[in-house]
Specification:
Length: about 110
């Protein structure tokens, strides 16, 4: 993949993430599906590691409703704390209710 292709690839992910409203989340896999062929949950996660301040990275979580950045950020629960400040509630095991908080782009609702 060329540098231009990689930049376009990243920007497609970030464009979706920027649309996620406050107090809502999307999963890595959900974003990959909406982007189509060539995207996987793993590649979306990789792209999210390079997100800038203009991308609400905290609103992308795993398919279990849990934060996946615990070992990657300091403090270790930063993502969950930020999401809780946005009104998202987590269980003691660190899981949010995807039926309640998951956001779908218009036309991609289940």
């Amino acid at each position: 993949m060329s540098i231009v292709d990689e930049k376009q690839y990243r920007e497609r992910v970030y464009a979706i993430v920027r649309q996620i409203p406050l107090g809502r989340v999307m999963t890595y896999g959900q974003i990959a599906i909406s982007l189509g062929e060539g995207y996987t949950a793993r590649t979306v996660g990789y792209v999210m590691h390079g997100a800038g301040d203009d991308v609400p990275w905290q609103r992308v979580i795993n398919s279990q409703g849990k934060c996946s950045t615990g070992r990657l950020t300091l403090p270790h629960n930063l993502q969950q704390e930020v999401l809780e400040s946005e009104g998202i509630e987590f269980t003691k095991s660190g899981k949010c209710d995807l039926n309640k908080y998951r956001w779908f782009q218009e036309g991609l609702e289940p």
